[in-house]
Amino acid sequence: MKHLKMVQGCVRVLAICTLLISCQVPDGRSAGQTSQSDASNGSVDQSPSTERSASPTPGCIGWSCEIDGIVYLDAAEPGNELEGIRVNFSQISWCSPTAGKQETLTDANGSFSFEVFIHDTDSYKISVDVEGYQTAEHKMGGFDCLFCYCPLVEIVLKAE
Fold first, then answer.
1. What is the pTM of this model?
2. What one-character DSSP code corresponds to residue 49?
């Protein structure tokens, strides 16, 4: 048991070191920044971008990412996706420019997406509150999305 705790501690230190080393690439942009739309010709540039919509607090190391999900009715199965459902996103962060609340509507496939700046100590809550159904929530933290590898959030609405 003592050996297991020591190994877990080493893994945490390694994760933090990797985080600190990998967050800045040589040209100064954050790791994980990817394509941006070119408004002039409608194309999408697949090369990493050096532009950000908002700047984090100086010293805030993290990534500009998307958190994606799907809202289902009764079970997370094909055919149960819900369109037009309001999805709420809440981010608690000491330094992220996207901290606070956002909301969006699901598309025809029940999908939703939030663009966020993720710091490893942030916490997030995604919730759906629809009359006649139980409120559904999904909570996660910055370490759940290291290097923008966020898991797909599946929210299932159940009748009250």
1. 0.66
2. P
